[in-house]
Amino acid sequence: MVGIGKIHYYILFICGSLFTAVAISVTSVSFILPSAQCDFQMTSVHKGLLNGATMIGMFSGSFIWGYISDSRGRRYALIFSMLIDGSFNLLSSVSQIYPVLIICRLMSGFGVSGATVLYSYLGEFVNTKYREKFLCWMEMFWTIGIIILPCLAWLVMPQTFRIEYGFFLFRSWNLFTIISALPSLILAFLLMKLPESPKFLLAKGKYNETIECLKFVHRWNNNTDVKFPVTSIVAPDYVQELNKGFLVGLYESTIGLFTSKFKYVAIITCIIQFCSTTSYYMLMLWFPELMNRFLWYETLYTGFPNMTTMCDIVSLYKVEPDDIDGKCNDDIDESVYMNIVIIGFACIPTSLIVPLFVNKLGIRFFLGVCFFGSGVSAACLYVITSSHSNLMLSAVFESLSSAGISLMYCIAVELFPTEYRGMAVSIGSTFGKIGALLGNVVVGVFIDEYCTVPIVVACSFLIISGLLVYTLPKTGITSTK
Questions:
Q1: What 3-state DSSP class applies to 164?
Q2: CA dihedral in degrees (137, 141, 142, 143; nearest 10)?
Q3: Which has the least CB within 10 A, 86, 109, 119, 363?
């Protein structure tokens, strides 16, 4: 009755822009790693721990924000999670010691993990006919973030200013971190002007508030003051929920999901999220580092024969802790920024094709293509011997794997009813962040000596994800309420 109109596209724009902010916040660390390594005397293991701190925060936060979104509201969870992300990113910009930087990235990850609620919030405003298409457009906004980030880094990171005052040091990477924090804070305030999800309000028995939300949507879509024709909602089977403590409610929501008829779907989606997110973050956050190593090798060894594999090349860059003061180099070659921009633009075709054809071909078709294709590209990384090959494979991997992860959130919104949706999506994200944490630690430990290990893990996990997709039911499960 409220139709599809201006307000829905505005909500899509706000949710999408927030997803862009999330992409900037999460992946900004990939440029901070090589730029701040001398300030914090970071080895590869330290860099892996810094990436891992973000994932630890996201792991713990996903679980909590999912419960908050199902108990207090989608909009409530989104606003506070983005405020936490932006605030701690700002604080990390003035960090002077490594442990403080770790804590700030951990809390930023805790906040940004609430962004998974975006899929539930957006999907619950849109009717079934348009829901998949709207949700799939979110991947385009992630791609925009991936493009904007290296452009910002390219403008800011090469600046050579150095502000020192006693113990305090402020350089270009600090300014870059401040800029990366602003989108989350700005969009959190814009979200305050939007209503709560009408389906959430309905599921909680808040019928008057549901009517007010639908009136708001109807007024925007029709650009008229004509009253919304529905004046009351009757749902006699609704049972008022008892007030519970936070931990009790969190426990009961989790147990309720995994003891319900949705438990099989929940387990499969968690496994897929774990495997695919492990592979994605294992490689994506290390792309600037790997490109920097390739360019360092090709510059230093000009005229020499190419090494046999990528692993031989990256191992030459190894810096021992005792040598870091003498061998540390925090300059990022300008072509690295250009390469990341190219990777971002390479994601645009996938981001356009999926929402345009998802209703015809189905989410499962695109999930299979994305996971199998990115798995093959990850395997091919082992045999490359040049920065150009690395760039092409990185572009294929980024475009397919990121699209696959986004589609997993879309399919979770379709498979779970309102009362379980927030928790189901967020628990899947929680398992994904566990994998992302383990993946970054694996890369940090093995990249210098045994880089074959992360490549094999990434490839295998993506293939497993592609196979498991076809075990999910083909249609959503309706609520028992």
A1: strand
A2: 100
A3: 363
Phi then psi for residue 164, to 5 deg, are -125, 135
The pLDDT confidence band at residue 331, using thresholds 50, 70 and 90, is low
In angstroms, what CA-CA distances link 184 with 14, 17, 56, 71, 141? 11, 9, 19, 23, 14
- Comparing CA positions, the residue from 276, 439, 56 lying closest to residue 268 is 276
Please tell me the distance from the alpha carbon of residue 34 to that of residue 170, in angstroms, as a whole number. 16
* 3-class DSSP state of 94: coil
Question: Of 407, 406, 411, 401, which Cα lies nearest the Cα of 459?
Answer: 401
pTM of the predicted structure, to 2 decimals = 0.77
Of 227, 233, 226, 249, nearest to 201 (Cα)?
233
* Dihedral (CA of 20, 89, 412, 192) sign: negative
Q: Give the tens place of pLDDT for each residue, 154-182.
A: 888 888 778 877 778 888 888 988 999 99
Element holding 165 (H helix, E strand): strand 163-165
Angle at which helix 172-191 crosses helix 74-92, to 10 degrees, equals 160
Contact status, residue 423 vs residue 259, Cβ threshold 8 Å? no
Which pLDDT tens digit goes with each residue over 375-401? 998 888 777 766 677 778 888 888 899
Report which secondary-structure segment, H or E, holds 14: helix 6-27
- Alpha helix (H) residue ranges in 72-97: 74-92
